[in-house]
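Q: I'm building a small set of examples for a reading group on sequence design. Run inverse folding on the following structure and report the sequence directly after it, with nothing in between.
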């Protein structure tokens, strides 16, 4: 069995975006931390893994059945911003330019990776458009999906699927570069993109 140092480096290197050198720096940082800090990190990891689940409505991460945004009656329920992953919800929220609700797909269409419409939360999105729960009907779907090749393909697919349902379908633009990732954009850039969204397809 590997020694504790090697094991810790190996576990850190499994995290997305963490290479071997960064994993080593993180491991050595942990060794220099106070025992209380290490326990706090360990407790936070365990609590997040055991207590966090998906929101029953928008599918972002939450501790309750509904996330704080979905449970907020002051949000504009007629607007739904569709994003690729939960981290994108926080990115858009940080722009402070959007007051509607969200829907997390948990991925984008990628046939080469075996990800089709059935693997995403598209069926649930359609159900939200046709809801009859007394809330304001959905009037606009904003596609805030990362502008990668797969992301753009997903935007086109969703636009063609949703437009016949009688809702306006738009996508964020102006400031989000091709190949950019929402999670790493500054709030001003995302804010401009939300404010200057355009129709995703010509009617």
């Amino acid at each position: 069995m590997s020694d504790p140092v090697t094991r810790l480096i190996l576990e850190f290197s499994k995290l997305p975006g963490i290479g071997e050198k960064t994993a080593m720096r993180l491991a050595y940082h942990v060794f220099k931390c106070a025992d209380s800090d290490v326990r706090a990190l360990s407790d936070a990891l365990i609590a997040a893994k055991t207590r966090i689940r998906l929101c029953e409505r928008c599918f972002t991460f939450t501790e309750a059945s509904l996330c704080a945004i979905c449970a907020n009656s002051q949000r504009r329920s007629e607007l739904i911003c569709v994003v690729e992953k939960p981290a994108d919800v926080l990115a858009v929220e940080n722009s402070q330019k959007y007051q509607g609700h969200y829907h997390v797909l948990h991925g984008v269409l990628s046939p080469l990776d075996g990800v089709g419409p059935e693997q995403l939360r598209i069926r649930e999105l359609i159900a939200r458009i046709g809801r009859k729960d007394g809330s304001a009907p959905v009037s606009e779907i904003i596609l805030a999906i990362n502008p990668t090749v797969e992301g753009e393909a997903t935007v086109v697919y969703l636009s063609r699927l949703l437009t016949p349902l009688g809702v306006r379908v738009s996508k964020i633009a102006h400031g989000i570069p091709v190949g950019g990732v929402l999670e790493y954009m500054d709030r001003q850039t995302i804010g401009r993109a939300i404010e200057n969204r355009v129709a995703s397809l010509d009617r």
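Strands lie at 53-54, 61-62, 76-83, 100-104, 140-144, 168-171, 198-199.
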